[in-house]
Write a structure and sequence with these properties.
Layout lengths: L9 H121 L2 H16 L7 H16 L5 H16 L12 E2 L10 H8 L4 E2 L11 H23 L3 H18 L5 H14 L12 H14 L1
Antiparallel strand pairs: 1-2
Length: 331
């Protein structure tokens, strides 16, 4: 068997080696280009991300700067307002200091005078409106104590006038005006429920007959009048109809109200006159044998025997003197 041997010469293998080297170089170059392109792309993406983050950071810094500026402006505004309030407080403090100084110089005296004037005025009103002598006396005493707190000799005339008013109250006859007024109110309620005989008897009414043809002119005139002739053979009181009974109750109630008003106005004569009018109407128009009428008449008799003279003394000298001191202080 014959064996063949082939051999390649170095000159024939060289072009193939060069081709392989060029392909390898091209491959490496392609890889480098791809790497460069990929690196550039990734670099561009990284640059874009960094740019975006930088832009966001710049916007955040700008917003923070604006917020800080707004906060600084608000803080400056609040500081200005606080400074204005402090200035206002300082002004008010200065005014209060001046007021306190004025009070120390003489305002306390005016304040005490006003308090004494209010107490004396209230005492006079209490006496006139409620007839409460005890309360009026306490109020005048409080006014005198207020003047005494000043320890000022100029207050002596006013205190002397108050002492005169107090003596009038203490020397007044201790008539229980409130009790009398309440008693009169109870009598008014009794009058409202008082039983008044109301009757009209046919036998007591004389029917109108037409006058005869030969009647005088005055008989014809009387017949034409809208009147009813009532014959009462029994002694007084006369029987009352419903209107007269209502009128009588109203008259008695008005008399008792007049008596109350006279007590409040310190008019004892008018008080006695009102009680007398009520008793006169009661005795003149109602049967005094009735138990209700007897009780009402006895109560009126008791009131008539009550001496209401000087029940409410006139006071006001102290109030007048205090007002005079206030007028002097105002000058």
């Amino acid at each position: 068997m014959r064996t063949h041997f082939f051999s390649i010469s170095p000159l024939a293998a060289a072009p193939r080696v060069r081709q392989q080297g060029a392909a390898l170089i091209n491959l490496l170059l392609l890889l480098v280009i791809i790497a460069v392109v990929a690196g550039g792309w990734f670099g561009w993406q990284f640059f874009e991300r960094i740019s975006t983050e930088n832009q966001t950071l710049r916007e955040d810094i700008l917003a923070l700067t604006v917020s800080q500026q707004s906060g600084a402006d608000l803080l400056a505004k609040k500081n200005a307002e606080a400074a204005a309030r402090i200035e206002k407080l300082e002004v008010e403090q200065a005014v209060r200091g001046d007021t306190l100084a004025a009070l120390q110089r003489g305002g306390q005296r005016n304040w005490l005078l006003n308090e004494a004037q209010a107490l004396a005025s209230l005492a006079q009103q209490r006496l006139l409106l409620t007839s409460d002598i005890a309360s009026a006396e306490r109020l005048l005493g409080a006014a005198d104590e207020t003047l005494a707190r000043m320890n000022d000799p100029n207050m002596l005339p006013a205190r002397k006038a108050l002492a005169a008013d107090l003596e009038k109250l203490r020397g007044a006859k201790q008539v229980d005006v409130q009790g009398l007024i309440l008693q009169l109110g109870a009598l008014q309620q009794q009058v409202a429920t008082l039983t008044v005989p109301v009757q009209v008897r046919d036998a007591d009414i004389e029917e109108k007959l037409p006058p005869s043809s030969d009647a005088n002119w005055w008989q014809q005139f009387l017949y034409a009048l809208p009147v009813t002739v009532r014959r009462q053979e029994a002694p007084l009181p006369l029987p009352l109809d419903a209107v007269q009974a209502s009128t009588l109750r109203l008259y008695l109630d008005n008399a008792l109200q007049q008596a109350q008003l006279s007590l409040l106005q310190n008019k004892p004569a008018a008080f006695q006159q009102a009680i007398a009018q009520a008793r006169s109407a009661l005795r003149g128009w109602l049967n005094t044998e009735s138990s209700e009428v007897k009780h009402l008449d006895a109560s009126l008799q008791q009131l008539a025997n009550t001496n209401a003279e000087q029940a409410l003394p006139e006071i006001g000298l102290g109030l007048k003197a205090i007002k005079g001191l206030q007028a002097e202080a105002a000058q």
